[in-house]
Amino acid sequence: MTHPSPAAPLDRIRVGSAPDSWGVWFPDDPRQPPWRRFLDEVADAGYEWIELGPYGYLPTDPAVLTEETARRGLKVTAGTVFTALHHGPAVWEDTWRQVSRVAALTRAMGAAHLVVIPAFWRDDKTAEVLEPPELTAAQWRDLAAGTERLGRRVREEFGLRIVVHPHADTHIDTEEHVARFLDATDPSAVALCLDTGHYAYCGGDSVRLIETYGERIGYLHLKQVDPAVLADVVARRLPFGPAVARGVMCEPPLGVPELPPVLHAAQRLGVDLFAIVEQDMYPCPPDRPLPIARRTRRYLRGCGA
């Protein structure tokens, strides 16, 4: 492994990890490690901050989860929800029902963020096209209005800040789509979770995004893309799930984007940010995540984080 040269401490960046880096995509799946193993290993790898992952993977009883995390020296940064707000007011009640339960647990764990991921436009496994990859003007308006409504209500009822996560195979993915979404939404209600891997997967430049829309960046996910695998994925028009199974996301510093420039651009914003390592590896052998997590944490320390 190539190690970065010593750098000035990134004292505004707080590094963590997530169940995703242990191959966890679902609340319950026999191919995923048991939740106690994840907690043991993420602490062993040197992290103190974690995300909740898919609701129901970690205990949903705040008392149980607080005890389990505290005795391992772990603290929670965020919960995660999936939404389809471009479908307009008709989906609001169902959306709020699932958002509110995740937000309640997130708040109970002392976290301050809720990561919001848009719905996929094609099936994550079969590549079946579920709806057009481009939104209509009316759908863009519904997406913006619904997300602002969600951001305000989550803040009012739970004291959390929503951070919208551009994601492969969703309608908020490319530089063009991310810029359109940010330009259409109120900064006081909606912030961005910049995932460096997903943004590179969709052709985006993370440093340029931070420098252009710095005031909108509320949270980071750190991951890298293997350019050779990505080229094959694009050529074959594979959906995100099979792309991950092929190893499109790789551990740093083996892929793109280079993380030190991203971290230093984020540091220059002058605000405290969580930077959560999220290397998609579903499914993966049970003994694979921990060595990668240890190497990644060591690498990020070498970057100053």
TrEMBL record:
Species: Streptantibioticus cattleyicolor (strain ATCC 35852 / DSM 46488 / JCM 4925 / NBRC 14057 / NRRL 8057) (Streptomyces cattleya)
Pfam family, one: AP_endonuc_2
Protein name stated in the entry: IolE protein
Domain Xylose isomerase-like TIM barrel: 39-297
Gene3D superfamilies: Divalent-metal-dependent TIM barrel enzymes
